[in-house]
Amino acid sequence: YRLSDINAALGVSQLKKINKFIIYRRKVAKKYNNFFKNFECCEIPVEKKNYYHSYHLYPLKINFRKIKLNKRKLFEYFFKKKIRLQVHYVPLFYHQHFKKKFNFIKKDYPNTEKFYNSEISLPIYFGIGDKNIKYVYSTFETFFKKYKK
């Protein structure tokens, strides 16, 4: 892949700020961790000893089956509240091209399916403020109160 000069210049300028970005994201992740660790249904990202997480994503695992709630409903609720959740990453066996070419069979990958069904990626980026983080918290709590009956 060949970058254009402008893209290379942008990349170099971003690399100069990388430590600042990572430190900020780690602070946001710590706030998320402190909040979501209080929910029995949530599994926060694990940072292993001698490893340093950059948190370019914040993947939160939720045991939807255990709490009898629906992942799609959670996404729709957050979307209505103008919070964009994401899924990282869609398993290859969901993509028609790979299904056909490699004859992937979903049941052959139970761990992949389990992860995909439980993972959501919360907003995390340089500059997300405490107000927005607290809005994610309150939206999550409200969702659970509303649908956990």
Strand content: 5-15%
Residue runs with pLDDT of under 50 for 5 or more positions: none
Shape: globular
Q: Based on helices, strands and strand pairing, what is the structural class?
A: mainly alpha
Average pLDDT metric: 93
Gap between N and C termini: 52 Å
Describe the structure.
With 149 residues, the chain is mainly alpha-helical. The chain has helices at 5-15, 18-36, 64-67, 71-80, 96-102, 110-118, 130-147, and strands at residues 42-43, 58-62, 119-122. Strands 1-2-3 form a three-stranded antiparallel β-sheet. It is globular.
Write the layout of secondary structure elements.
Layout: H1 5-15, H2 18-36, E1 42-43, E2 58-62, H3 64-67, H4 71-80, H5 96-102, H6 110-118, E3 119-122, H7 130-147
Antiparallel strand pairs: 1-2, 2-3
Give a short summary of the structure:
The protein is mostly helical and 149 residues long. The protein is 52% helix and 7% strand. The chain is globular.
Question: Which properties best describe this structure?
Answer:
single chain; 149 residues
